[in-house]
Automatic annotation (TrEMBL):
The lineage of its organism: Bacteria, Bacillati, Actinomycetota, Actinomycetes, Kitasatosporales. It comes from the Bacteria. This is AI-2E family transporter.
Amino acid sequence: MSRLPGWLAGLGAGITRASQRLDERRKEAVAGDLAEEVVVPTPRPERIPAPPAYAPAVVAKPDPVSAIPWGMRVAAEAGWRLLVLAGTLWVLTRIISAVQLVVLAFVAALLVTAMLQPTVARLRRLGLPRGLATAVTAIAGFVIMGLVGWFVVWQVMDNLDNLSDRVRDGIEELKRWLLDSPFHVTESQINDIAKNLSDTIGTNTEEITSAGLQGVTVMVEILTGILLAMFSTLFLLYDGKRIWQWTLKLVPAQAREGVAGAGPRAWRTLTAYVRGTVLVALIDAIFIGIGIYFLDVPMAVPLAVFIFLFAFIPLVGAVISGALAVVVALVTQGVFTALMVLIVVLAVQQIEGHVLQPFILGRAVRVHPLAVVLAVAAGGLTAGIGGAVVAVPLVAVTNTVVGYLRVYSQEQALLATTAPPGATVVEAAPDAVAVPEGAPGPQERE
């Protein structure tokens, strides 16, 4: 009896060890099944024979990106960005061409507003309400422009019969001058030129008629554009500030402060350009008009008005208006009077180019002559006479905006660096930013 408890204890320990061994084998079997499911046997690669000793060594190919020269990679990066910009400009040009009448009318309204807005501001300072000041300025401006147009038409129609007689006399005088000139022109050659001109007019009657019908369409478009420009001018004069504030809301928030500062400076540049151009054109018209009046050229006043209007087309306008005055003097008063008119026109234009424009416009509108030529050519090709008129003020405004934004970005970059507390940008780094005349300082940003 004394051995029975010891035997029972040994039996229990053996059963426990057996159960532990069974559990361990069960875990090993489960782990083996999982390994067989996960591990996928891969086929053994075939043995590749070594190349013979006489075979040339193969150099590993470099990465294609590293194989391209750095300059070519830079050119490619810049090229696709330029393509995107060119495509954007092309789409923008197509859109502007589709609504050319609306765009030109609005730009004309901006130019007229820039000319009349100082008058509205002056009337407001005198105590007039905004609506009354706008109405008085707009009505006075439109009435003056309408009276000038009516006066030109009246003068042309009133002197048309007399002008036609004097043109015939002038042509006869020019014919006699050519016969007596050293150019050896014969009367038969002159008659052949006149006959060819008459035949050309007779054979192109349909084209002339269609051109006349097209001219009627152009007149309708011009009247529509004038009405659009008048309404736009009224709203810009009355509510221009709120329109500008609404436009700023369309700008992304990060760029809004810079655009808000560039806008008033662009408007001052446009105002200076318009008022300076009007003053220069008025001086040209007065002096050339006085010259051709004392030379007894017919329609001196309408010609002076044409000179004033064509002065708004840079470069080309002065040549066209001067040539028109010379031609009228040639066919009505003869060669000597035409030469005198040419001298007067050239003298006034030289004074304008070297004295009036630098003195009146000054540094407010700083545009390189090459930029003026290219802008006028591009504007004329894109939108005709209207494009040539608005090209130069557009370039002047763009120049002002780009210059201000460049200084503004430099200012923000310097503000991001470490500076003494309370110091301005110019005080912290006076040599880092060259602020041009008229550009805002850090404390006068709008």
